[in-house]
Design brief:
The protein has two domains: 68 residues, Phosphorylase Kinase, domain 1 (2-Layer Sandwich), CATH 3.30.200.20; 157 residues, Aminoglycoside phosphotransferase (APH), C-terminal lobe (Aminoglycoside 3'-phosphotransferase, Chain: A, domain 2, Alpha-Beta Complex). It has a five-stranded antiparallel sheet with strand order 1-2-3-5-4, covered by helices on one side. It has a three-stranded antiparallel sheet with strand order 6-8-9, covered by helices on one side. Helix 2 runs parallel beside helix 6, helix 5 runs antiparallel to helix 6 and helix 5 packs across helix 7. It is α+β, with helices and mostly antiparallel strands and 247 residues long. Helices cover 36% and strands 19% of the residues. It has seven helices and ten strands.
């Protein structure tokens, strides 16, 4: 493997440990005990510059997330140097029981969704996300489990865009790898490149999917009760899970 060509002056002498959790196309390295490096090739579809802006904004709200230390464009790539969030992500924390994970995820999302969407500069309403999804689809980046189903999935996506939206500040990729925890304590959000104002079902859909995969469908009613939503819109939940296949 070609040695990683870091921006000049970055993290000299620190051991770089590749991180493989999650499905992001970015390179992610832990640098020592307290820093992380993230890098993506420069292109019109890259998400890292947007993630940098979102991390700075979210950090300014007081909610826990990585702090941006430095950024650079170097060797044809975008680069981000950021602090580590304490603890481990939920997908890597073996043995966390459902009675811990369920209220932890629900509580974290309630905090995020309580932010004032009027103060968030990142617009991820459905029509905008569909346009981004279509651009990625046309570029051959459809990421569904059945690649041959891409045309059908794309047709379903653009033909069933929600007509109403309950707008909040969403994480945009509310899966287990993006919730950090230390024991039963939530310690921060990571991978915030899709944060923006969207329907709350954007996050509920992906959180429910992670819960079902890890603990079974029986965990979902407890999660929804902890989040304090009694009747989620099942059509929206399905649509936002479909949308995720394009990112």
């Amino acid at each position: 493997m070609r040695p990683l060509e870091l921006p000049p002056g970055w993290v000299k002498g620190l051991t770089l440990t590749p991180q493989t959790v999650g499905k992001s196309g970015a390179l992610v390295y832990r640098a020592g005990d307290s820093l992380f490096i993230k890098s993506e090739p420069i292109s019109h579809l890259t998400e890292l510059p947007g993630e940098i802006d979102r991390l700075r904004w979210l950090h300014g709200t007081g909610l826990p997330c990585p702090e941006v230390i430095d950024v650079a464009d170097h060797a044809g790539r975008h680069w981000l140097l950021m602090t580590a969030v304490p603890g481990r992500d939920l997908s890597s924390t073996s043995g966390v029981p459902a009675e811990v994970a369920v209220p932890l995820v629900a509580g974290a999302l309630r905090q995020l969704h309580a932010l004032d969407p009027a103060r968030c500069p990142f617009d991820h309403r459905a029509s905008i996300r569909v346009a981004s999804a279509s651009a990625r689809y046309e570029a051959g980046l459809y990421d569904g489990e059945d690649p041959e189903n891409g045309p059908t999935a794309h047709a379903r996506l653009i033909g069933n865009v929600p007509t109403t939206e309950d707008l909040v500040v969403t994480h945009g990729d509310a899966c287990f790898p993006n919730f950090m925890a230390d024991g039963n304590r939530f310690t921060g959000f990571i991978d915030c490149g899709r944060l923006g104002v969207a329907d709350r079902h954007q996050d509920l859909a992906l959180a429910c999917r992670s819960l079902e995969r890890n603990y079974g469908a029986a965990s979902i009613p407890a999660f929804l009760a902890a989040y304090e939503i009694t009747e989620p819109d099942e059509t929206k939940l399905d649509w936002y899970r479909l949308l995720d296949e394009f990112f």
